[in-house]
Amino acid sequence: MAASEYRTLLRKLSCVRSVPSPENLCSRRTALSRTIRALIVTASIGGPALAAAQVSPPPPACPGNPDGLGTVRTIVIDPAEHARVGTMQYPETLPLAEKEVVLTFDDGPLPPNTDRILDALAKDCVRATFFVVGRMARAYPDAIRRIYNAGHTIGTHSENHPFNFDKLPEDRARLEIEKGIESAAAALGDRAALAAFFRIPGLGRSTISEAILAEQRIMVWSADFPADDWRRIGPAAVVARALERLERKGKGVLLLHDIQRVTVLALPTLLRELKTRGYRIVHVVPAGPDRPKTPTSREQWVMSRARESSHAVASASAADAMLTPPSQAGAWPNAFRRSPVTRAAAAQDTNPPAAWPPVTTVAVGSHGQSLPAPSLRSFGLPHPLGPALQLRFTASDHVNATPLHVLGGAQGPKTLLQH
After folding, report:
1. Is the pLDDT reported for residue 414 higher than 70?
2. Which partner for 168 in 71, 84, 122, 172 could form a disulfide, CB atoms 3.0-4.6 Å apart?
3. Residues forming the active site
4. What local confidence, expressed as pLDDT, does residue 403 receive?
5. Closest alpha carbon to 328 in 400, 248, 230, 417
6. What is 182-207 written as a DSSP string?
7. Beta strand ranges found along 90-179 (DSSP E)
8. Which residues make beta-bridge pairs with 77?
9. Average pLDDT, stretch 266-277?
10. CA proximity to 155, closest of 11, 81, 302, 258
11. What does the mean pLDDT of the chain come to?
12. In 255-320, which ranges are continuous DSSP H helix?
């Protein structure tokens, strides 16, 4: 039997992820899965360097969307074996074939933006890795559970997303790391649902934080290229920057933010362009007792020198150049309530965040006073009272003519305000 036939059989036996459960059927298939993986290694030419060293096959068909991008394969990695990845800061990156991409999203969850990101990924049958902030997970537990149940990988991104992570003393850094894991695990209901993956806030690496993470056998994820979706740019620019940097690298880990509205608007176009240009999505999961790691060679974890020289590699100071996401770029209100950066690097930036809200002078015509009040539905903002509450309009969409209700409660809707 050829190696490709073994892979097909293994995909058919792969377990479908769902809400964590002790009765997960994956445990019953462990021995058979390991046997088949061993046969794959034997049948493959070149020893342990499997499909990751080759051009990946076409992805399986996307149900309901034949033009969907899809997820071509899943690679299983042992976080303890490769402590740090991402050529923006480290020598190693994930063992990807040419034109393979791993999508990652930071800072969430934050409805409704995260929900719309998940909708776009589901439509194209794409799986990604989400690095969640602990207190955001506690605030929106339903959102992080939806991420998991959709089959995505969940890593952590600290408890409070401090932008000076590289300056934190050891006790503060340890608290941010451990508390973030605790909060995300509590929101999911099972720590086993979390991957031992961590992305440092603002990519603000330090020897202290890296030592803490290595001590706990947690893998640090930087990235191979960003799309600048935290800056004050539009969806078209986000797509253009992501594709231009990917073209230079040829493959790699893309850094995005699911809290940003601009990312919500850009993602469908980005997925379509990746499909058109022949790129393929790879999903990454951690190894475990019932999930053996994908065999790879050391060379697969190193980006080729020719590719690397074509794109500037960020150093540890890269975090200094990352400005606070402006409010008008997406996630309103500011999820972290942080004032503008005061570092010297930020002071030199030519495109600093503007004041919020932006002030625009508009010439009012003779009919300006007859314009109706805008609908709340025009703004797409998260509800200020929390994720469990929803708004309903009972007469018209105009705020000045409609009672505003909150759904829920034994007594039914309760009027909050009436114009």
Report:
1. no
2. 172
3. 106, 257
4. 36
5. 230
6. HHHHHHHT-GGGS-SEE--GGG---H
7. 100-106, 129-132, 153-156
8. 286
9. 98
10. 258
11. 74
12. 261-276, 305-309
pLDDT at 22 over 70: no
Summarize the confidence of residues 71-93 as an average pLDDT. 96
Q: Which of 305, 290, 239, 229 is nearest to 262 (CA)?
A: 229
255-to-47, 131, 306, 323, 330 alpha-carbon distances in Å: 32, 10, 22, 15, 16
User: Could you tell me if 302 and 91 are in contact, meaning their C-beta atoms sit under 8 angstroms apart?
Assistant: yes
SS3 213: helix
Q: Are 36 and 77 in contact (CB under 8 A)?
A: no
What is the crossing angle of helices 30-43 and 3-13, to 10°?
160
What single letter denotes the amino acid at residue 33?
S
| Single-letter amino acid code for the residue at 173 | A
Helix (H, G, I), strand (E, B) or coil at 242: helix
Distance CA(329)–CA(265), nearest Å, equals 11
pLDDT at 37: 52
Cβ contacts of residue 173 below 8 Å, gap of 6+?
Answer: 165, 206, 208, 209, 212
* Cβ-contact 142, 383 below 8 angstroms: no
Residue 137: other Cβ atoms inside 10 A: 29
Q: What is the pLDDT of residue 60?
A: 83
pTM above 0.85, yes or no: no
Query: Buried b vs exposed e over 85-106: b needs ≥16 C-beta within 10 Å?
Result: bbbbbbebbbbbbebbbbbbbb
Name the pLDDT band for 11 (thresholds 50, 70, 90): low
Query: Looking at the domain covering 48-328, what would its CATH class be?
Result: alpha beta
Higher per-residue pLDDT: 26 or 143:
143
